[in-house]
Design a protein that fits this description.
three-stranded antiparallel sheet, binds 1-deoxymannojirimycin, Glycosyltransferase, single chain, 24 strands, alpha+beta
Length: 476
């Protein structure tokens, strides 16, 4: 018999850590959630857990075994001809941190007993690296199950043929069964977002080949910087020529910079540390733009630093988190205020926005996490409850516009709030996780200072990676 306690939170106002919010009645199945063991009492944290459980049940009911849930039609979506089980692998670390152990263990059992990657499909190497490899490695880190590590290694071995190019930058697609790789043109994020997962795998398996592949790809980008120290955004993996010379931190580049710093933080590879420090100085010198009293990051030509566009993407809101993590709190705060202003202008964020023309150039909102991630980092790193309140606001708006009968869905246009029929896998992996970690801050045993998240919010403990060992096992 499952014990179910209804938490009556109807008119209750949480007065915790200066973060206040009235929430409506919700219920958490405490027989499943380990929240009581964690002594989580913040009603907003409990509400996020309840909403995660509700969305997860919808995925199980309507999309089990498939990649993603279509929450309006209560159907499923697969990225390729055969499913890769992306939502559950992405959801695991969030369910685990929330103490939803039945759900987490069901995924783990399915992964080790039933999931095979021997599929004749062409997978997008960037996307499956951050979601599947990152998710499996985090599942291993949290569960300690060696069969999960074997799955992660099997998956990485299927990815590796893509790195077999003249530059070392991976091709866009790889066939998981045959190893045949295709797609010579990739953006910088697709070229250089591998050192973190590949380094972790090298550490766990004591085989440096994974880190070598990821790092070569990153260095191949860095080595092609302009005399100003800037990189472009699209490159040919065979010729090494820039296909587009726009330099920015937006979608298509973002996680290249993120992984320079995070991989340095986790493994202490001094070369990545120095590339990060050099890069961020150039970004702040040539790409930062003061406009209308706010800090923005525009697009410039990598060779001349001439501005080429003031269109930004909501992905760019990852940058305050990395600035704050790497110690530049003043700039991180200013930039987060810019993003907060943009969110409040619409009530959600548009995918692309031209800040000089003041128009949304692509008004979709896909339940993305970045602004929430940065507010969470700043809340932890500054202790200022204003950042917790930002996440209260974002959560309140997401509930208002994106909540459906069974789960949450993306928005087609933030000016009309018309809903799309899709719940991306990163909503489980990232958005719900960062909201929960914000609202359970100070109550959960999660130790931010000992954690580094991959770009899909899968957490890894810094203390799991001994720096001397990392040098040996990763081979740097
Ligand atoms: C996520 O899949 C990852 O964070 C990626 O690096 C870019 N952003 C999406 C979610 O917005």
């Amino acid at each position: 018999m499952m014990k179910k306690r209804l938490l009556m939170l109807g008119v209750m106002t949480a007065m915790l850590f200066g973060c206040t919010q009235a929430v409506k009645e919700t219920s958490v199945d405490e027989s499943k959630a380990d929240v009581s063991a964690e002594k989580i009492t913040n009603p907003l944290a409990l509400e996020v857990v309840a909403e995660t459980q509700r969305s997860w049940q919808a995925y199980r009911q309507y999309a089990w075994g498939h990649d993603a849930l279509n929450p309006l039609t209560k159907s499923f979506d697969d990225w390729y001809d055969e499913p890769l089980y992306i939502s559950p692998i992405d959801a695991y670390s969030t369910l685990y941190l929330m103490g939803l152990m039945d759900e987490a263990q069901e995924i783990e059992r399915y992964v080790v007993d039933s999931l095979s990657f021997d599929k004749n499909i062409n997978a997008k190497i960037f996307e499956v690296n951050i979601r599947i490899l990152g998710g499996l490695l985090s599942m291993y880190e949290l569960s300690g199950n060696p069969r999960v590590l074997a799955k992660a290694r099997d998956f990485a071995d299927r990815m590796l043929p893509a790195f077999n190019t003249k530059t070392g930058i991976p091709k866009y697609w790889v066939n998981l069964q045959t190893g045949e790789a295709s797609g010579d043109t990739v953006n910088v994020a697709e070229a250089g977002t591998y050192t973190f997962e590949m380094g972790i795998l090298s550490y766990y398996t004591n085989d440096p080949k994974y880190y070598a592949a990821g790092k070569n790809a990153t260095l191949a980008i860095y080595e092609r910087r302009s005399p100003l120290g800037l990189i472009g955004d699209v490159i040919d993996v065979e010729t090494g020529e820039w296909v587009s010379a726009q330099s920015h931190i937006c979608a298509g580049v973002d996680s290249y910079y993120e992984y320079l710093y995070k991989s340095y933080l986790l493994f202490d590879d001094p070369q990545l540390g120095s590339i990060w420090h050099e890069s961020v100085n150039h970004i702040n010198k040539y790409i930062a733009d003061e406009y209308d009293g706010k800090l923005w990051y525009r697009r410039v030509n990598m060779n001349t630093s001439e501005p080429v566009s003031s269109v930004i993407t909501l992905y760019d809101a990852f940058f305050p988190a990395i600035l704050a993590l790497s110690g530049d709190i003043p700039r991180a705060k200013r930039l987060q205020n810019t993003w907060d202003w943009l969110w409040n202008k619409y009530g959600l964020e548009p995918m692309a926005y031209d800040y000089r023309k003041a128009i949304a150039t692509y008004p979709v909102y896909d339940l993305n996490p970045e602004i929430i991630e940065s507010a969470y980092y700043l809340y932890h790193l500054t202790g200022d409850s204003a950042y917790c309140q930002m996440n209260e606001k974002y959560w309140s708006d997401i509930k208002k516009y994106c909540r459906t009968e069974v789960a949450f869905t993306s928005i087609e246009n933030v000016e009309t709030m018309k809903q799309k029929d899709y719940m991306p896998t990163f909503f489980f992996a990232e958005t719900l996780k960062y909201l929960y970690l914000t609202f359970s801050h100070g109550q959960s045993s999660f130790d931010f200072d000992n954690q580094v998240f991959n770009t899909e919010a899968h957490p890894f403990k810094r203390s799991s990676f001994d720096k001397q060992e990392a040098k040996k096992r990763l081979g740097f």
